[in-house]
Amino acid sequence: MRRIVSENTFDQTLDVKGQKCPKPMLKTKKALAKMEPGQTLLVLATDPHAVRDLSQFADQTGNKMLSSCENDGIYEILMQRKSES
């Protein structure tokens, strides 16, 4: 399985494998809220809608989706908490 990021390029991991919409998005929102501005979160999900949902969430909140890919049914989504303005 090829990963989109090495283990040294993100600050935290959130495993939401096996959870369906809207739980991956809600848990990502909660995790990002606890992080410092600019920190990164690797979300591991099996729900195929997670990529779309987290992309929309990022657009609406000012957070960023840095990258995403699917490997063997697991979606790896790299999110970044928005910077303070």
TrEMBL record:
UniProt GO MF annotations: transferase activity
Pfam families: TusA (PF01206)
InterPro entries in the cross-refs: TusA-like, TusA-like_sf
Source domain of life: Bacteria
Annotated keywords: Transferase
Record-annotated UPF0033 domain positions: 14-38
Family in the record: Belongs to the sulfur carrier protein TusA family.
The protein, known as: Sulfurtransferase TusA family protein
Origin species: Parasutterella muris
